[in-house]
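Memo to structure team: turn this sequence into structure tokens by end of day. - J.P.
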Amino acid sequence: MEGRIVTEEVSCVVRRGFAVPAEAAWQVLSSRVGMRRWLADPSHPGMEVGATFPRRGSMPGQIAEVGLGAVFHVIFPGGERASLEIVAAGKRSELVVTVRGGAAAAAEGWSAVLTGAQYLIDEVRKRRNARQAVVVIHGIGNQRPMATLRRFTAALAGPSEMWSKPDRVSRSYELRRHQLRRTHFRPRTDIFELYWADKVPGTKLKQITAWLRSLMLRRPALVSRRLRPVFYLSYGVLLALVIAVVALAAAVGVDGVNHLVSGVAALAKIGWVSLLLSVVGAAANTVIISTLGDAARYFDDAPDNIAVRQSIRESGMSLLRRLHKEGKFDRIVVVGHSLGSVIGYDLICRYWLEVHRSHGRPLVVRQTALPGFLERLGKPIVTQDDLDGYRKAQRDLWRDYRRMGQPWLITDLVTLGSPLTYAETLLARSPEELQTRVAQFELPVCPPRCDADELTVNEKFLVDGHIRSIKMPTHGAPFALVRWTNLYFPARWLVFGDPIGGPLAPVLGCGIKDLPVTTSRWIRRRTPLAHTAYWRWSANDEKAKATRALLEAVGLESGRWLDEHVNEMPWESFIDGEAGLRDES
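Reply from structure team:
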């Protein structure tokens, strides 16, 4: 700080330097949210003529003029006038306050004002280090809190690369977050678990049988092609049982059947036999409820399941809202395993409904990536080059909307062993109904199922006395911005491999990148145990091909392009008006 008398007209000059370019300092200090943080006034209107400007030790002044460039003028009671100008100094800058008509002692009050500006800008500069979040959603079964998170993190990074830290986002005392060390290619990464197993209490066997009955009573032609062999096999087993019972009754007669039933009942009364039957029955009941119960409660929209579905989705929506509004992260990846992949898909579609038309009211609208994306949207995706081009257009479009203040941070959905491969059966009652729901934007697909002129709507807004128009994606187009990667273990006859997962592109859009993966362990590669092997082994294991594919799909080493994206973002976007500056912990 320097306070001195320059001329008789100038009372004092006060300076404070910043380690950022002049344009960046002006963006921070002149924005509405920046002035509110700088001047500690949560209701300040921003850099407007007539707005108040406080200074310690005197009555507040009033902004009299906002000049061209990084300068504005303030008038205080008694005729004191001050001009505040941000001056470039190479890659640095400084804020210079020139006071006229006041006392030299005013330098002390201005020093406090400039200290606040320096603190704000330095904190914003530190927050421009890219940071990403990964949300992992577990699948069916009696999952324990943190079990999925620990295995997932251990597979992607070694113990020396991570810390276990408090989770202040999920609002659950049972959960923590894992933070990965920043490297040259990997930004600071926080991994969260969306735990939902506690949201499905008291599942009863009749709820499972009701769901299975609703599936089995459909005509095979209305069932997903990959599931038809299971239906035919089930019908064959039931028919064989009926024939066997009828044949037995015809062979031994009614009296013989009654005698056989009495013998079985008498045998069941023997102590050790009764105990064995009870144990086997309880185990079978537990296995069925723990494996099929969660799926039945989530997929079946029967009235007694609605509250469960609502509770699961609301907990996920709350997590996504807080991750977006905290101001810590520049990118979010959603990873869902098994039924968790369906939950992740639902959450993306529903959160998109809330924010898809939000933007930052830019003064100048330059939508440079939209024409290229619309051109890609009108072309079929047939080859790998077509798919790579579409995914690049998605990333460019996301970056474009983020620069214009769109709050959407989710860049990728990664699904593992996803039952969405049977969407024609699980999300609808027939393939025709699925196509109808897709066409009506009830079920978004990748790429969006709409023409180029239907992808966006014109959103008008008023800024600085001018009406601006920006093209925002419709409510049915989350996968215009979100890239979708699907990993699955190929299965033969729905037994030799992962019977739950499969390719999604034939069902939910050719913009989905399907990756068939393998595991070197024979017993898991050739049995349904493959369903639990997507991150069972560390990525450092030479034979862990599935884990390495997962690592690449999540894109943890996003440092180069994410840093470039952060540097393109307006400086004021790194200040949050509600939560303050982003926490680096």
